[in-house]
Write a structure and sequence with these properties.
about 350 residues; alpha/beta; 4-stranded parallel sheet; 15 helices; 12 strands; about 15% strand; globular
């Protein structure tokens, strides 16, 4: 989302983006390639105090008026670096519901969570939620007038679309972080159901990495699924999606996944548990939804849709139309530009 927004602002927006990153890598190289100014504040080398100090210096040297952060650590750094300079406005985008940690584990994670909430409540001018559902969750700790809903957007022009037929071997993928909240175990259940329905007609991909990968890859659940491949991190997700029939989201909660938007834009079916922003994104025949943890129902819907070429093409067209009318990067950037201007006018 950050890449799409910064690229679009750099070419068509009312505000010039300057991006500060806490690590070097693929995002930095893509931003550089598009001519977006980037600065690395290396969290592996710098203390958090040094990061906030350098961020404050960057704001002064480039006369920054809007600070826009996207993750917990960056939210806290942005809040501390701005301090009491209220000429600068602080916008935070939340991409998912807060994760809860038992009181007896992960003290560092819980401390970060507390500081993040405090910065939202007492420092930030506005918090952006990427879906209406997420806004409802955030409203438990923030007044409604401090929350704005701006869905994520993608560059539709670079995502050509045409309805796709199903190949003899159907590919179903999970794409994301392999962490507890993403419930890869439920994806493996969906895979087992599909294999039982049509033996030998499916292959399954788990794309991504995370702390649970080794455990899940060696689990009996994974071993019981034929033609299952844990790919690790994949750089070019849009290219991967062109080889996938269905991408599954089995998370306990989601904001507005960029992968879902990318899939819908180019004809890959999205199948998901009815959670978070996915419920509104996929309704009205734009994808497949199943309640709760009913993996059998989700598998039945996937198999049924892939067996019906007419229904498949209709779902693909509906999904593409929804992205074009509500989830383009131009719409997203315009909404952020308007929010920045409104907040700056109020601060002056």
């Amino acid at each position: 989302m950050l890449l799409n927004l910064a690229m679009n602002q750099n070419t068509a927006g009312a505000y010039e983006p300057i991006v500060a990153l806490l690590n070097d890598g693929l995002l930095r190289s893509r931003l550089d390639h598009c001519g977006v100014s980037t600065f690395i504040l290396d969290e592996k080398r710098l203390s958090f105090f040094s990061i906030t100090t350098r961020l404050r210096e960057l704001q002064k040297s480039h006369d920054v008026r809007v600070l826009h952060s996207h993750r917990k650590k960056e939210h806290i750094a942005a809040a501390l670096s701005r301090g009491l300079d209220f000429r600068r406005v602080l916008v935070r985008t939340e991409h998912g519901a807060p994760e809860h940690f038992p009181s007896f584990i992960r003290l560092a994670a819980r401390t970060t969570d507390v500081l993040n909430r405090l910065s939202a409540q007492f420092v930030a001018n506005q918090t952006v939620a990427v879906s209406d559902d997420l806004a409802k969750v955030l409203s438990k700790g923030l007044p409604p007038n401090r929350i704005t809903v701006i869905p994520n957007g993608i560059d539709i022009a670079s995502r050509p679309f045409e309805p796709r037929a199903v190949l003899p071997v159907r590919t179903v993928a999970f794409i994301g972080r392999i962490v507890a909240v993403k419930r890869v175990d439920l994806f493996l259940e969906v895979a087992r159901h599909l294999e039982h329905m049509r033996p030998g007609c499916y292959r399954f991909l788990v794309v991504g990495d995370g702390p649970l990968r080794d455990i899940l890859e060696s689990s009996s659940d994974a071993q019981s699924v034929s033609h299952l491949n844990f790919t690790g991190f994949v750089d070019d997700i849009p290219a991967l999606l062109r080889q996938v029939d269905v991408v599954c989201f089995t998370s306990d909660h989601e904001g507005m996944p960029m992968t879902a938007l990318e899939a819908m834009a180019q004809g890959t079916i999205v199948a998901a548990r009815s959670v978070g922003g996915l419920t509104d994104l996929l309704d009205d025949g734009c994808g497949l939804l199943a309640p709760g943890t009913d993996t059998g129902q989700l598998a039945t819907q996937i198999n049924g849709l892939l067996d019906d070429q007419g229904a498949l093409e209709d779902t693909q067209r509906r999904a593409r139309s929804r992205i074009e009318t509500g989830y383009s990067v131009d719409i997203m950037r315009s909404r952020y530009d308007s929010l920045y201007t409104e907040l700056l006018n109020a601060a002056s």
